[in-house]
């Protein structure tokens, strides 16, 4: 009988061990696969539901509230600037008109908002759609219900603020407990647009009903999700699917804290509550910085998982039995070759009871083989050299720390020589290459090779007395660091030309480059990089400029100028009248003002986004659906455009298709009727243009004529009449040949004060102010307004 420590026993034990390991691995693999599949299924459903709910909240509530702010700030500019004025007590009639416009906003969005407030911080003056005009508002009864957001904005370095939900009673003066009220969330934004909260002239606040958020949560989130709520970055609860969401949220406090601390925009985590496992899912609401949470029991799929567990266990037991039988057979078959190998090893070391290197008698055949291989391993080890650690990752971190002005751990000083920079070079400059578009066209497999090839190509550029470092940034842009003995503008121009040429040759694509300033210390390199980043913002508006170096662009970042209201309104007016050439001319004028004016890049992007939103809302209002495409997604199409020239072409193509298709879908009768009505209106502006009078002239009912105007033109009959009259009035004012009273009568208004009121509602200023605005525009813009 063989000993238990013999080679045969060792082989049998090893095979059985391998079988056990394989079975355990298979069992673990099956378990992990099905467990992950289960988790992915649960998390995928949660994520989809949460994402749809977040999109609905963004589109239906949060963005609508911001749109209300824009409507108030853009349409009431003249009136808003009156509040901080010291002459306000002499213009209380204008305040009444402004309050009426606020009340109209609340009435138009009564399902969403409770009130709109205007607060002048320096004058402590409050004008509210709900509370009226209050002087010394900080000392008035009920001031606590608006001073919270006023104080919040005074401490805010940004231009907007979302408060947490709070209870506001219907009667803010009475101190009787138990009164009725509402849970409100206030959105506050400074005016002018870019001024920070502490320095703003005026605060525009909109009270959002918490019930509007709760209604969406109740409608969108399934009943099996026991609790859904929205949390602020500080952990406060804004709204929930149940009125007692704040109390329920305490149960999930640990998960909420972890989610708020996570940099991820969405995710899932598990939590034990009352002996049961729950999956807590969260999703960012980017407009406000809030997070949407939902809690679901984790046992929704456990029954199916228990069946799978039993099947896996049965298969593993069967595999274990078969493996043990095979282990015995294989051990017996492999024992003979093992003995031959042992004889060969003994022949190499010579006869004797011991093999050199083995202390004492070898326990079994495996001990002798192990000793021989140990001696061989020792010899190999003595021949191995120590490989120097690769440094590319360290270099990249050092460069990123330089650009972000955040040196590595502690007080470690960045050594330029480690980066390959000569101590003789005392001047540094950053160039920024916009390579996002080039990398976006590549597959993941080719991206790494493209990055390495690009940086190698740039660093291979040689000029006397300089050294170039190129590094790929996390945002897929490429930064080029130049070190030189002297700061030379000519040298910078030569390098810019060579770098753009090399990049274009590498990617077969036009690449834009921005130049930072020269600095005399490597520790100040972040200053040069910040300038290059700022200049790169204007690459979108100046696509024809290969090298962005104009320092005047840096001054635009500090400008508080706003685009004149007539320029902003002209595109909307022409679009609603479906005048293709005039609409495209208005768009071209707006783009020219952005490109040539002194407006910051972020402000111009904001205006472009609002123009796209306005265009999208107009198409939805007339129920327009493109014949060759799916549902409209204009905003995503807009953000995918690389520059403003492509934006203009996209707008021109989209508007052209829209006007062509809407003209085709109109029947001959509708077209002839609308055209006849428009012709009659145009010829009789000073006459009776009531719906009954005009419908009789075109031989259809007043109701059907009103329907045609709404469906075909996207506006009501009354709005069309007002627009035509105001358009004619504006033309007459620009000609400056008639008095205001004559113009009012010519366009069909019996009284001059009513005409002035309607003109101010449409254009935001009186006819006299409008004429002065036109006279101050550049000659090109003034001709376009005509």
From TrEMBL:
Keywords: DNA-binding, Membrane, Transcription, Transcription regulation, Transmembrane, Transmembrane helix. InterPro entries: Homeodomain-like_sf, HTH_AraC. The keyword Phosphoprotein does not apply. The chain crosses the membrane at residues 12-34, 311-331. It comes from the Bacteria. Residues 675-773 form the HTH araC/xylS-type domain. PANTHER family: ARAC-FAMILY TRANSCRIPTIONAL REGULATOR, HTH-TYPE TRANSCRIPTIONAL REGULATOR EXSA. This is AraC-like DNA-binding protein. It comes from Paenibacillus silagei.
């Amino acid at each position: 009988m063989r000993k238990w420590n013999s080679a045969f026993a060792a082989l049998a034990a090893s095979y059985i061990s391998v079988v056990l390991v394989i079975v355990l691995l298979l069992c673990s693999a099956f378990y992990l696969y099905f467990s992950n599949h289960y988790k992915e299924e649960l998390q995928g459903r949660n994520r989809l539901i949460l994402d749809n709910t977040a999109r609905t909240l963004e589109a239906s509530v949060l963005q609508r509230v911001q749109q209300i702010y824009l409507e108030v700030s853009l349409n009431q500019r003249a009136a808003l600037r009156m509040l901080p004025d010291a002459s306000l007590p002499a213009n209380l009639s204008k305040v009444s008109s402004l309050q009426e416009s606020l009340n109209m906003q609340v009435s138009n969005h009564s399902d969403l908002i409770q009130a709109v407030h205007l607060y002048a911080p320096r004058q402590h003056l409050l004008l509210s759609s709900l509370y009226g005009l209050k002087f010394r508002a900080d000392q008035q009864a009920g001031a606590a219900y608006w001073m919270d957001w006023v104080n919040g904005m005074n401490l805010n370095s940004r231009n907007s603020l979302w408060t947490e939900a709070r209870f506001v009673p219907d009667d803010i003066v009475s101190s009787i407990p138990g009164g009725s009220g509402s849970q409100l969330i206030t959105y506050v934004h400074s005016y002018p647009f870019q001024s920070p909260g502490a320095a703003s002239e005026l605060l525009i606040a909109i009270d959002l009903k918490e019930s509007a958020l709760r209604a969406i949560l109740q409608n969108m989130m399934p009943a099996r999700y026991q609790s859904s709520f929205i949390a602020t970055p500080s952990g406060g609860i804004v709204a929930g699917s149940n009125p007692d969401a704040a109390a329920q949220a305490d149960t999930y406090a640990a998960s909420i804290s972890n989610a708020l601390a996570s940099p991820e925009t969405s995710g899932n985590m598990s939590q034990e509550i009352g002996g049961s496992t729950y999956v807590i899912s969260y999703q960012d609401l980017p407009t406000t910085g809030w997070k949407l949470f939902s809690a679901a029991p984790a046992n929704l799929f456990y029954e199916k998982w228990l069946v799978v567990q039993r099947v896996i266990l049965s298969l593993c037991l069967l595999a274990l039995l078969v493996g043990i039988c095979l282990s015995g057979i294989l051990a017996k078959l492999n024992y003979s070759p093992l003995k031959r190998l042992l004889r060969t090893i003994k022949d190499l070391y010579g006869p004797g009871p011991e093999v050199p290197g083995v202390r004492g008698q070898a326990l079994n055949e495996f001990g002798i083989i192990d000793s021989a291989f140990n001696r061989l391993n020792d010899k190999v080890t003595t021949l191995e050299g120590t490989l120097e650690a690769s440094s590319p990752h360290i270099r990249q971190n050092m460069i990123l720390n330089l650009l972000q002005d955040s040196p590595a751990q502690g007080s470690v000083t960045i050594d330029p020589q480690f980066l390959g920079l000569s101590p003789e070079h005392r001047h540094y400059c950053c160039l920024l290459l916009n390579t996002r578009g080039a990398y976006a066209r590549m597959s993941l497999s080719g991206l790494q090779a493209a990055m390495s090839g690009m940086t190698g190509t740039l660093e291979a550029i040689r000029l006397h007395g300089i050294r170039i470092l190129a590094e790929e940034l996390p945002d897929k842009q490429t930064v080029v660091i130049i070190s030189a003995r002297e700061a030379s503008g000519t040298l910078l121009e030569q390098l810019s030309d060579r770098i753009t040429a090399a990049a274009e040759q590498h990617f077969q694509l036009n690449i834009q480059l921005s130049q930072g300033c020269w600095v005399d210390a490597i520790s100040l390199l972040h200053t040069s990089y910040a300038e290059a980043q700022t200049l790169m913002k204007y690459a979108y508006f100046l696509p024809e400029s290969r090298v962005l170096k104009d320092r005047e662009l840096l001054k635009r970042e500090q400008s508080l100028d706003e685009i004149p209201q007539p320029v902003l309104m002209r595109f909307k007016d022409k679009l609603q009248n479906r005048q293709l050439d005039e609409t495209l001319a208005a768009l071209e004028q707006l783009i020219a003002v952005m490109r040539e004016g002194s407006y910051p890049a972020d402000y111009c992007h904001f205006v472009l986004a609002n123009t796209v939103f306005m265009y999208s809302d107009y198409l939805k209002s007339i129920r327009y659906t493109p014949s060759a495409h799916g549902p409209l997604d204009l905003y995503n199409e807009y953000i995918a455009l690389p520059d403003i020239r492509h934006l203009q072409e996209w707008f021109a193509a989209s508007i052209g298709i829209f006007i062509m298709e809407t003209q085709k879908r109109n029947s001959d009768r509708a077209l002839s009727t609308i055209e006849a009505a428009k012709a009659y209106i145009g010829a009789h502006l000073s006459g009776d243009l009531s719906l009954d009078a005009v419908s009789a002239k075109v031989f259809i009912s007043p109701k059907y004529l009103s329907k045609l105007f709404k469906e075909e033109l996207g506006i009501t009959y009354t709005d069309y009449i007002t627009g035509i009259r105001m358009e004619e009035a504006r033309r007459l004012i620009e000609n400056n040949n008639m008095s205001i009273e004559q113009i009012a009568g010519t366009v069909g208004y019996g009284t001059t004060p009513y005409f002035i009121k309607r003109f101010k509602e449409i254009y935001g200023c009186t006819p006299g102010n409008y004429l002065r605005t036109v006279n101050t525009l550049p000659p090109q813009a003034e001709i376009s307004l005509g």
